[in-house]
Amino acid sequence: MTKQLSLEQIISCGIAKETAVAMLPQINQWLSSLPASECWQYLTHHILKPDQPFNFHELLYKTTFADWKTSQGPPPAWFPTDEQIQATNIAALMKHLKVNSYAELHAWSAEHRREFWEMMIQRLGIRLQKPYSEIVDLSQGVESPQWLVDARLNIAESCFLADENAIAIIFQEEGGALTTLTYGELHSLTNRVANGLVNAGFVPGDAIAIAMPMTAESVAIYLGIVKAGCVVVSIADSFAAAEIAMRLHLSEAKAIFTQDYIWRCGKQLPLYSKVVDANAPQAIVLGHSVELRSGDLTWKEFLSNNEQFDAVPAHPAAHTNILFSSGTTGVPKAIPWTQTTPIKCAVDGHLHQDIHPSDVVAWPTNLGWMMGPWLIYASLVNRATIALYYGTPTERGFGEFIQDARVTMLGVVPSLVSVWKTTACMQGLDWSNIKAFSSTGECSNQQDMLFLMSKAGYKPIVEYCGGTEIGGAYITSTLVQASAPSTFTTPTLGLDFVIIDEEGHPADKGEVLIVSPSIGLSTELLNKNHHQVYFANTPGSSLRRHGDQIERLSNGYYRAQGRVDDTMNLGGIKVSSVEIEQIVNSVEGISEAVAIAYSPPEGGPSQLVIYAVLETHLQHDKEVLKTFLQTAIRQRLNPLFKIQDLVIIDTLPRTASNKVMRRVLREHYQAILPSYKLV
Fold first, then answer.
1. Burial letters for 427-440: b for 16+ Cβ neighbours within 10 Å, e otherwise?
2. CATH no. of 155-550
3. 70, 97, 142, 558: least surrounded by Cβ within 10 Å?
4. Does the domain at residues 566-675 carry the CATH identifier 3.40.1080.10?
5. Using one digit for the tens of pLDDT, what is the confidence trace for 316-343?
6. Is 275 helix (H, G, I), strand (E, B) or coil?
């Protein structure tokens, strides 16, 4: 098929007529004479520019790949050059191992896990206070591997291997100026925190919570807690008081770091008052705008003046962080990270996001989500710079920060990109320093990811999917393989997985099971049976359940298919149906309700839909009721969870054992959507 564009098509995209007339002959010559992949590379290098209308980019992409087979997934929008490949950390590892292809490298890493992890510990320079006698002991089975046998370490020490004058953090308050913190300055502040904990009477093993946004101070607090041998309890600053209280209870936290207010879009949002309402233990409070409870300390009162501290050595399996991830019940799983979990973060960042000491890494996140700790370790262990913006990432100010901080690796949640595309708030910015994006937290869609690539002059997107209980990802992309929007290219190095159908047989589409062991994979839960959650009833003793569905495409790439169970992923935050339903069912007028996640057919983030049976004696306007439900969720669970639609139904479908069949409701919503307008 001859592929040609008309002048009218280009002009209709918003390109000036004179410009369209000048570029059309060249475009049509390449379209008609070159293979699609080669043509696209010419177009992205010589025709397409970030400030051009996105529909022009999309027109050329779709025209170039008009003959592409849909079974292969989206066509690649970025192809690495030999020079780009050779500059990667993966290429350096391949050269060291004398392997000739990425496929060969991954196969080696999965088959020789002891050697792989030992090599990566050495390459990253992980600091050990006492060396290990064996890299891993599997005598207790793959469910309970003992990593770094006999070693003693404090992983915080490995975050300060860079030159003390190198920039550790570059940050900016909303409306403020760029500010930097060197590795030496961050180390000093970290030590002052650790000494403050000792002075306050805390001892190694004590759980200390953090409910703060991601700031330079919170990074130092995080590392100071770890360096003192204590355990960070990660709590998102967006949580309501009841959710904060639950996490403090599950972790048995003995203190909490927080701040008086959070500033967002010029608004002052209370934080310390939520901590007080949660009946938290002793609080150390940053900021000066609130009156403290008796026994609470200001940041100034707490912080030691002593800038020297010897890191407390710990067993490799000692806890460093307790994070929370929802399962299918209303109580979140309490997942402990050990001294070795951060090695997984750092190795993934080193190999897959390709983080080098010269890089500036930004990822809008917080310490309540695993990507907060991930950002700390993946950046600092690799001697790179963390970039933190204190305002909202949906506004232009964030994009200007990315430009001015000269960010080289930008991480996103897909719903963020959707906002940027819809509002055009990033138009005209110079993101040319970005060498790669990375996307995680929820399923992405092809159009949004193509838009994101276009904003930096077509740079690759490392799709990255895993979980808190993995310490990173099990499936990802690399900078040595062509990048196609919304697709993964490989299991992570050092890991492997299988896909099974409903009968437990190997398949190209179905549930993914991770092949154990690996550094990073959890071995315990504080409040649930780890074996039952991850290993029970799997078709192999080394296979570990994760709960995702994926599809292997005909070109060997992969596409995410959402969750197997009823855990939702809303805005990058996992939440169970039960957690939402407990709140919705308490609203007056609701007899019973079910929450489901609807996945748009075009891909993209999951959307929250509520099916509700109303009390027969009450009549409610649907919009009014939806507002009531949204308010309850915002106040009692999380303001980031938005109800996309409310469906009134007479009865809920149930099994013979009286369990609600959410699958039937998802199928019902899929069926009614063409004739049913979202509200």
1. eebbbebbbbbbbb
2. 3.40.50.12780
3. 70
4. no
5. 999 999 999 864 446 889 999 999 999 9
6. helix
